[in-house]
Amino acid sequence: FFFKQKTAYEIPKRDWSSDVCSSDLALVSRRLVATHGPVRLLWSGQIQAAVGSSIVLIGLIAHVLPVVLVGLLVAVASLGITFANSTALGLQASPVGAGSASALLGISGFLVGGLLAPLGGLGSAALGVLMLCFALTGLLVHAFLKPRTPITEDR
């Protein structure tokens, strides 16, 4: 009875797909991190986001909805891998201020999303361009910015 109550915060069945896809990959990431390590999984998640964003951009330019949807599925699915491992690596680098580091990591996505949301409505391909730019920026930041303390790869 308790779990069947209807509330204003209930997620309709049609809205579960993106949440389930991302959380399923987070569970897969949890199992893979023991064998491959968080750095390698972060790289794979970022590459997956770039590939998905490229597919979205191609679909938006060509005006083909199924291609856009496949690209969005690939890009959104990468969040389950990327968020979990980037948060773990960020908190590992700052064990003393883990609470503050977690708060900064949590609010940064909302801040950037809120500031740049109007740019997504500029045109049909603007969303794909923004997604691809941020995915490539994430790859470049990961490739060229090194942490102050070396992060050991636990296997």
Give a description of the structure.
The chain is an all-alpha fold. 72% of the residues lie in helices and 0% in strands. It is built from 5 helices and no strands. It has helices at 16-36, 38-62, 65-92, 98-116, 126-144. Helix 1 (16-36) crosses helix 3, helix 2 (38-62) packs antiparallel against helix 3 (65-92) and helix 2 packs antiparallel against helix 5. The longest helix has 28 residues, at 65-92. The chain is globular and about 50 Å long. The N and C termini lie far apart (44 Å).
Map the helices and strands.
Blueprint lengths: L15 H21 L1 H25 L2 H28 L5 H19 L9 H19 L11
Percentage beta strand: under 5%
Largest sheet data: none
Which regions have little confidence, pLDDT < 50, spanning 5+ residues? Answer: 1-5
Query: What gap, in angstroms, lies between the N and C termini?
Result: 44 Å
Fraction of residues in helix:
over 70%
**Number of E strands:** 0
Mean pLDDT across every amino acid position: 79
Query: What general form does the structure show?
Result: globular
Tell me the Rg in angstroms: 17 Å
Q: Helix and strand string, N-terminal first?
A: HHHHH
Number of contiguous helices? 5
